[in-house]
């Protein structure tokens, strides 16, 4: 019997490796420019810069992938799974649109009066809105999203295996779950990027997470199909 390679043991595909290399190159570049050229780093993570554009592309790609999955499940008459994929497709399309302010800067569209008054950056998007003295971005897209990501990456599979009704919901809706290497990459990226603070470092973290989510949706872990001894 042939020994499994590390790639096989981890369930890595060539696509996974290529996109992880991209993520690591982005992280390495940010750290190098942080030391040697802050101006290059600022340009790297600026609005409509390299990092933000890659983030938007990956989010759009994940949305398209969900649409493709929905079409496949429709052919299998898995209507609930189709619903799940449509919801995910809409969510990631919305996230991608928000990331580039729905093309406002690309097409030089002036913000309306409401957004000029209530948006922290005067842009046409929801995540930078300020309600009272509370920034929506900080409340929902930072604090709450962090909790959701921690639950998803670190606890969802465990809870699905241990708590019957949670497991039933994951099966029923066919929720894409991360593999071990997805979670490891997420933790590694978060520690490195959050540990070495610089202005707009969260843009790079969003970019890496967008890459990871694309890979999860491309090859999700289906723990409930695995045979256990």
Give the DSSP E fraction (strand runs of 2 or more residues): under 5%
Low-confidence stretches: none
What is the count of β-strands?
Answer: 2
Quaternary organisation: single chain
State the strand order across the main sheet: 1-2
> Could you tell me the mean pLDDT?
85
Q: What order do the SSEs take from the amino end to the carboxyl end, as H and E?
A: HHHHHHEEHHHH
What does this structure look like?
The chain is an all-alpha fold and 229 residues long. It contains 10 helices and 2 strands. The chain has helices at 6-10, 14-36, 38-44, 50-75, 79-99, 113-118, 136-162, 164-173, 180-195, 201-218; strands at 130-131, 134-135. Helix 4 packs antiparallel against helix 5 (79-99) and helix 4 runs parallel beside helix 10 (201-218). The longest helix is centred in the middle third of the chain and has 27 residues, at 136-162. The protein is globular. 27% of the residues are buried. The mean pLDDT is 85.
Strand-helix topology:
Layout: H1 6-10, H2 14-36, H3 38-44, H4 50-75, H5 79-99, H6 113-118, E1 130-131, E2 134-135, H7 136-162, H8 164-173, H9 180-195, H10 201-218
Antiparallel strand pairs: 1-2
Helix pairs in contact: 2-3, 2-10, 4-5, 4-10, 7-8, 9-10
Short précis:
This protein is mainly α and about 230 residues long. Helices cover about 70% and strands about 0% of the residues.
